[in-house]
Specification:
The structure is a homodimer of 117-residue chains. The first copy, chain A, has 117 residues and is mainly α. A 3-stranded antiparallel sheet of chain A has the order 1-3-2. Chain A has 2 domains: 67 residues, Winged helix-like DNA-binding domain superfamily/Winged helix DNA-binding domain (Arc Repressor Mutant, subunit A), CATH 1.10.10.10; 31 residues, no CATH class. Helix content of chain A is 51%, strand content 12%. The first copy, chain A, starts with 13 loop residues before the first helix and ends with a helix. The interface between A and B is large, with 42 and 43 residues. Chain A binds a DNA duplex (30 and 30 nucleotides) through helix 4.
Chain lengths: 117, 117
DNA sequence: TTGCCATATGCCAATATGGGTATATGATGA
DNA sequence: TCATCATATACCCATATTGGCATATGGCAA
């Protein structure tokens, strides 16, 4: 078949999940507590189906969990997955702290210390 | 005109820029020093045009800078933009540190302390 | 069962994206 | 100016995404 493979992984990756602004809003809002889709959609000004779709993506990557309560379904935050993103960006901390002009010098130092990253 | 607007912002947002695995690889590699596109492509096993395209995205969101050296163009890291991502995810830190079972209780506490997030 | 409320899906339209290959553009040195 | 190396673009293809709307599904209560 040899289908041309047009793009890499996607909605199974936390980085991608939080690349969508609205999904970030959802996560931020959920910090203040669980909510049913409807309320969430209302608070963020999106349609219910739209919110449902975003929640599905978030659920698939594990950033939210849901539990039944009567005929409602409450969505809650499970931020554990954000930790990897925090750590990944943290790996660049010294670079944004270093004065930009000193960056290259710093890099040179690193290279001498231990060869091979 | 009323074009249906099928998707939100995109390649002008750091979150989106780092959603691509290969772009994250590029950033990680650049921590060890500046490089011309060709070398970068070789080290990461991608074609030169492919690497150029990713670098363009990274440059547009400000995560890399480039400078001319002879007929080469060296790309270097400018991690300052990653700081916002680090901080955003950091805003969830207490949630991934809390025992999951205690989360709801914690949220309730927050709500009582200060109304309005 | 039958309604009804809450939420998830299906489908379509409009775009965004990534990758590949060929080619344009830039800069340098003879 | 010309040949050449380095890098960016243009185009095309296949697929991923998002949004809107209509509709299916699920769970409850009479």
């Amino acid at each position: 078949m040899m289908m041309l493979m047009a793009r890499a992984a996607t909605t199974s990756d936390v980085f991608n999940a939080i690349a969508e602004p609205q999904r970030r809003e959802i996560l931020a809002l959920l910090r203040t507590g669980e909510r049913p889709v409807t309320e969430l959609a209302r608070e963020l000004g999106m349609t219910q189906p739209g919110a449902s779709k975003h929640l599905r993506v978030l659920r698939e990557v594990g950033l939210v969990r849901d539990r039944r309560v009567g005929k409602q379904r409450l969505y809650g935050l499970d931020a554990r997955g954000l930790r990897s993103v925090h750590e990944w960006t943290g790996g660049f901390e010294r670079f944004w702290n270093e004065s930009f002009d000193r960056l290259d010098a710093y890099v040179r130092e690193l290279k001498q210390e231990g060869q091979e990253e």
